[in-house]
Description:
Blueprint: H1 2-23, H2 29-49, H3 55-77, H4 84-103
Amino acid sequence: MSWIILLLAGLLEVVWAVGLKYTEGFSKLVPSAITLSAMAGSVVLLGLALRTLPLGTAYAIWTGIGTIGTVIWGIMMLNEPASVARLACIAMIVLGIGGLKVLSAH
Length: 106
């Protein structure tokens, strides 16, 4: 169950990281409220996952999910570059997350 909670925390991290782009410096109410709610939810869920998961593993996976999701959003929705080198770096993050999960005792 902790892994599912961590996945949800990571997905909420994507929401708030992307949301920052749309708050325009927290000057827009609805995007700001969504972003702040996602931030709080993400951190709370991470905290719950940390009850049983190792700190280093959980934090690395949480930030990795956020990184990957944010980059994918940027490529698909904001026309950010999708160069081979950039995609290869994202693939390495995915491999690192997978490795941490496999090597975790939980």
